[in-house]
Amino acid sequence: MKRISLAILLLATINCFAQKDPEAKALLDKAAEQVLSYKSISTDFDYLFENLAEEKSESYSGKLLIKGKKFRMDVDKTITFCNGKQRWVYLIDNNEVTISNIENSEDDSPEDRFMTDPLSLYTLYREGFKYMLGEQEDIKGKTTQIVELSPENIKKPFFKIKYWFSADNNLQQIKCFLKDGTRYTLTLSNTAINQKIDDSQLSFDAKKYPGVEVIDMTE
Questions:
Q1: What's the CATH class of domain 17-216?
Q2: What is the pLDDT of residues 41-55, one digit of tens each?
């Protein structure tokens, strides 16, 4: 009986580590602690959306500036400003800005989180996820370490998220796998940290956009 109990305990322990690999956690913890210590981040990014069922894909590139909870994202003729509580989305071609409140939820997809709080991608693993260390892989000449996350709630629309971390614990790429056969990949490049970023770069100023139409959805 003791041998059976010991075997059960051993299997349970192995299963626990398989669900939350301590090596993966150590890397995720280190990466999160490091990025949250930066005073500012400037990075370029490439976004790729793939629909495997329809054999379609689309991609775009952008630039991101982050300073604490504030950020600015320039992509596809759209400039997004955010102060952590409210977001301004300016459409260049329409000379129109929409103001809305940020309402974060645990059900937000990684893509939604990126659009409201980019740094939350680093802390996503802390609640509701299992994780394990994957293989190493080269991305643009850099050796990266893969960490795979899977949601504990099987009702989530996605079943896996893969992270690629560089040797200095910075995120190089993230890919989300959805159950409907779609995939989206975010690749970061030309990342610079702790550079001087003026607050005016991260705030929408209507005076800089004469005649802008303001759509305020916060009221």
A1: mainly beta
A2: 999 999 999 998 888
